[in-house]
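notes to self, project folder thing:

trying the whole complex as one job this time. last attempt i did each chain seperately and stitching them together was a nightmare. two parts in total, labels are on each line so i dont mix them up again. if this works i'll redo the older ones the same way
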Amino acid sequence: MQLYQPARNLGYGQDITANFTKVYNVPKNVKNILRTSCYDCHSNYTNYPWYSNIQPARFLMESHIKEGKENLNFNEWGNYSSRKQKNKLDRIVKEIKSNEMPLASYTLIHKNAILSSSQKQEVMNWIEKTSDSLSSKY
Amino acid sequence: MKNIILSAIAMSFVLISCKQKNKQEETVNSAPNETEATAVKVNPTSFSIKEIVTNYLSLKNALTKDDSNATADAGKALVETLGKIDMKKLSGEQMKTYMDIADDVKEHAEHIGDNAGNIAHQREHFVLMSKDINDLIKTFGTEQKLYQDFCPMADEGKGAIWISELKDIKNPYFGSEMLTCGSVRKEF
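result (full assembly):
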């Protein structure tokens, strides 16, 4: 059982032009928040904790990451259609606002991923501004 | 220590068997859907979004009745239908437009299908799905008489549209709470 160690989500040799931070000019504070609180499951780069070597922790982790990336992958952002990008921005704000994300089971262990209300506001303000500039382009 | 290791191993077996059980259920569940899907006919001579619209309308009608389970079922049916649309009749440009929109509709339909019991979440996705359906109709037309309705209070007060086959307002965003809130904005 402990020998079952699926491939890690560490995206070697990736095309970085599709990155969220390449598509938009993301301010540093927002970038840091996204990286700390979202990227573990929503990008091709997971910052694995020590217990990721132990089953069933690893098994659960990989299934979360897989599902997270299917729904939203910041490293694949540039490959989304403009319609999808707009919708994803909308969804990110809603998930943060309703406290659905980051997942409670994640922040239970990753205390630094918990978003303070000012952090939430920073992210949501920036996304809403970005989203509005996109809709005028439509 | 020994106990912890043993319980971790036991736990992992339980988890795996749960997962397998789910898979079995999935295969059982998918069987009736397939028979249902064969009833959806795609016109072989010309491209049509009629089936997509039909599925969307039944989803919309389930929301007007505040029926989360029926909404989820309609969402699943819509995913099935999208998988069966024949794009061969489309030109390159049309196909790109269609695929962009359809890809998005599918995602919303999947979320709506997975969230039986959480009608608020289903309605969030319905806001975006309605925009997509509106664009599909704008691009590919409709034989059926359809209306674009607007509710200024939906989507947290930002306002949202929906497509309806009825001239009378039946609001899918609020259901019985405010069934007649909204107005017709456009006719197709």
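what i see at first glance: Helices of chain B lie at 2-38, 50-64, 68-84, 92-114, 119-140.
need to look closer tmrw
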